[in-house]
Every structure is written in structure tokens, then in C-alpha cells.
Structures
1.
Amino acid sequence: MKKDYKKEAASILEAIGGKENVAAAAHCATRLRLVLSDESKVDEKALEQLDVVKGTFSTGGQYQIIIGQGTVNKVYAEFSQLTGLGDMSTTDVK
């Protein structure tokens, strides 16, 4: 069965408090790296229930969602369209 990356990205976006809570977004090989305006808006339980999400953590002002190699770029492509942030590099997010 083909994964619906747009749906997964929309579910992630909803769980992290919507696009107005996302200040910046990028991805590395395995993780979606986000700078959030308010991390208290994140619904960890909702994120953990998503098939595509392998784990989450917050470090150095970044909220990172572990998705996995080969999938994270597809989810990020949909996520950046939904947020309207466009492509950012991990340097932009630091």
C-alpha cells in the first residue's frame, strides 16, 4: 500500500500546533527538524500514534521528529508545501 505523505505531513502539522507554530523547518537524513514558536502546543501522543513517526525529542531549540531515511524527504516535501515555508537547510534552522 502506498503511503499518503501529504496526509502524514498534515497530521504532523496538526500535532505540532499548526503552521502558525512553525518558525522554521528542514530535514536531515532521518529527521524533520523544526523550530517551533511554542513547544507546549505539541501533542506528543498524537505524534507517537502516526505510523511514519519513529520518535521525537527537543534539543538546542529544535524539535526533531524521527521519521527515517528515504521517507523524511517525502514527508518534508509535503510539509513545506502545507506550511508555505519553502525549502530550508538545516543551517537555516539552527
2.
Amino acid sequence: MKRVIFTFSLIFTIALSASDGKEVFETYCWGCHHQTAVAFGPPFEEIASKRNASEIKAMITSPKDVSKVFGYSRNAMPSFRLSDDNLTAITNYILSYKKDTNKTKIQKPYPNIALKKEGK
């Protein structure tokens, strides 16, 4: 029972964080980033597929230094001084757009040629 309550609490906290992250996004990020479309900056889908939480947090708080580490020739992102809660919220919100690349998607199954040959 404790495990179920803990799991629910964790899921609720992550969902709440993502919701708060949307507010942080709308306040600070929306002018240059969009969730899935390219704007002035890359979309969150792209960021989430390339970066982990610590890299995202570092880019938000110190983009000039992180850009040098990543080998970018230029950086237009300003640094932001966010509370730890807001920084975690926006990071979780960005990472919520990560696509699951581990799923194999088969759109149309291959016909079973072996069965058709046996029927001849």
C-alpha cells in the first residue's frame, strides 16, 4: 500500500511540475521556443531528444559557457536566474516532450509469404 501511495505521489509531483513548467515556459521561453515547432530557438522536442536534465539546466542558467562546451560558434540565449523550483519545473516540462525512440512501429504487417506458397 505504501508503494502505491509513493508511486501516486511521485506521478502527481511530476505532473504538477510539468504544469508549473508550462507557466515558466509561457513567462520566459515562449518568445524564442515552441514545444514542437522551430521558432527563433530549437523546439523542446529537439532539446529533449539531445540533452539531459543537467545540460538543460546549465543552458538556462549559463548559456554562454555551455555553448562553448558544446562547440557552438554563437549563442543568442540570455541567461536566466530562476528559483530551483522553477528551474526544475521548466526542465521537466522540456523533457516531457522527449519522443520515445525505443518503440518499434510497424505500420503494415508483412504478408506471410510462406503460408501462401504452401497453399499452391
